[in-house]
Amino acid sequence: MQDSKQVGKRKPSFLATMKAVFWSFLGIRKKSDYEQDAAHLNPVHVVIAAVIGALIFIATLVIIVKMVVAK
Questions:
Q1: Other C-beta atoms within 10 Å of 42: how many?
Q2: pTM of the model
Q3: Which listed residue, of 7, 12, 20, 25, carries a Cα 20 to 30 Å from 50's Cα?
């Protein structure tokens, strides 16, 4: 019984935070998932994941533009 309580109280990993931020970028989130994330995610991890996600997004756009302009 005690193990199940500890599993529920565990902090999500940085990978889980990246997943939550990715789905938030797409705008596809269930309300229950959002509420669970808001209660359990580390705000510092969310900010770091958002910056990484934004950099990946910008880099992808730059690569696409360079490919289109080069042709």
A1: 14
A2: 0.69
A3: 7
